[in-house]
TrEMBL record, chain A:
Function: Required for proper 27S pre-rRNA processing and 60S ribosome subunit assembly.
Organism: Cladorrhinum samala
SMART domains: PUA
Protein name: 60S ribosome subunit biogenesis protein NIP7
Cross-referenced PROSITE patterns: PUA
Ranges of residues in domain PUA: 96-171
Protein location: Nucleus, Nucleolus
From TrEMBL, chain B:
InterPro entries given in the database record: Loc1
Biased composition (Basic residues): 167-176, 199-212
Keyword entries, A-Z: Coiled coil, mRNA transport, Nucleus, Ribosome biogenesis, Transport
Keyword presence, Glycoprotein: no
Assembly notes: Component of the 66S pre-ribosomal particle.
Biased composition regions of type Basic and acidic residues, renumbered to the chain: 145-166
Name the UniProt record assigns to this protein: 60S ribosomal subunit assembly/export protein LOC1
UniProt organism field: Cladorrhinum samala
């Protein structure tokens, strides 16, 4: 387990900035004087409290399975891929949101993209190919994706047209159970 | 200069001593000693004449083989030679910058993290803003085009209607004329067909079978 390098940190924050509007809250000091830090172990990036990260140094790298919140994985080409486990953090400071109706929640959780007919609401002024967090109508975050059309274009779209390309959904907790946390 | 020559001659003499020993002996009286040295083993002759010769050698001729060995051969670097570089890919990890500390530089303190964060956020904001502006501009252009197309369509329709109306009017006029001037027309036609035999009323030709 080690802290991120300059380039790695930039890559991770760049990806998070696609979905979040306020990044500064990520590293803001907590009330108890502690703060959150990013740690890398087995090419996975974890968002964890500094105190816990310091405790975790007593565990060997091979034996350490996970700590804090896993944000995603660094690929071998140096890119960063967000995992569904990062959803609570993304949802807390989401820049753009899409709310899907009851009839659209299940198809989304099964891994399909969001079509216009399933959209209940969406945030205004959302450009094309921008990260957005998908919520149910009861404001429960279901996953995240990338907008296929801007809000104005999406209005003219036919009901079967794709509005948002899925990136990750909560169904992955079951579907990718064996590879999500290790391997 | 001269003593070195003697050495060379000595060696030459020693080499060629077997062949022309008499010749060297007969060259001069002063060399008779050396001539004797030739006949002796080489080592003995060398030891005798080494000390004085070596001193004069250093003075007279510095580039002796012994001294040459001490001189260092200059080693040229690739840059100095100016050899063109091979056209191949150098992997990222292979070229190491000189004078830099080995290993990764971690970002763990809050200040550097917040600096990176601010840079990233500013970049992203800028990108999103430009995206939005671009989208708005495109939307305006599309709207303008749509309005223009609608206008053109309306104009075309209006023109079509106009032509339709004009055609209808013409037709109506023609119909009206027909209604009004129907009898006249017939009369004219009749007159034209009758020609000069105007008095004879036109009658249909009748065919009848001849009665037997």
């Amino acid at each position: 387990m080690r802290p991120l390098t300059d380039a790695e940190m930039k890559t991770v924050l760049d990806k998070l900035a696609n979905y979040m509007s306020d990044l500064k809250s990520l590293i803001a000091p907590l009330e108890d004087g502690d703060r959150y830090v990013f740690r890398l172990n087995h090419s996975r990036v974890y968002y964890v409290k500094l105190s816990i990260a310091n405790l975790a140094t007593s565990i060997s790298r091979d034996a350490l399975l996970s700590l804090g919140t896993c944000l995603g994985k660094m690929t071998k080409t140096g890119k960063f891929r967000l995992h569904i486990t990062a959803l609570p953090i993304l949802a807390a400071g989401a820049r753009h949101k899409i709310w899907v109706k009851e009839n659209g929640a299940q198809p989304f959780l099964y891994g399909s993209n969001v079509v216009k007919a399933h959209v209940g609401r969406w945030s205004e002024d959302c450009p094309e190919h921008q990260g957005c967090v998908v919520y149910s109508m009861a404001d429960v975050p279901l996953g995240f994706g990338v907008t296929a059309r801007s809000t104005t274009e999406a209005r003219r779209l036919d009901p079967t047209g794709i509005v948002c390309f899925r990136q990750a959904d909560c169904g992955e907790y079951l579907r990718d159970e064996d590879t999500l946390f290790a391997g | 200069m001269a003593p070195t020559r003697t050495i060379k001659n000595k060696q030459a003499g020693s080499k060629s001593g077997g062949k022309s020993g008499g010749k060297s002996g007969g060259a001069g009286g002063g060399r008779s000693k050396t001539g004797a040295g030739v006949s002796k083993p080489r080592s003995g002759a060398g030891s005798k004449s080494k000390a004085p010769i070596s001193a004069s050698q250093i003075k007279g001729r510095p580039n002796l083989p012994g001294l040459d060995k001490k001189k260092k051969k200059k080693v040229y670097t690739e840059k100095e030679l100016g050899i063109p570089q091979l056209n191949m890919i150098t992997p990222v990890g292979v070229t190491k910058p000189k004078g830099k500390k080995k290993g990764k530089v971690f970002v763990d303190d809050r200040e550097s993290m917040s600096t990176i964060l601010a840079i990233v956020q500013a970049e992203k904001e800028g990108a999103i803003e430009s995206k939005l502006i671009k989208a708005r501009q495109m939307e305006e252009i599309r709207e303008a085009r749509r309005v223009e197309a609608e206008k053109k369509e309306a104009e075309r329709k209006a023109k079509l209607e106009e032509t339709k109306d004009s055609l209808r009017k013409k037709r109506k006029k023609a119909d009206g004329k027909k209604k009004n001037g129907d009898d006249d027309d017939v009369n004219v036609k009749e007159l034209a067909s009758a020609g000069t035999k105007a008095s004879k009323p036109k009658s249909k030709k009748r065919v009848s079978f001849a009665a037997e």
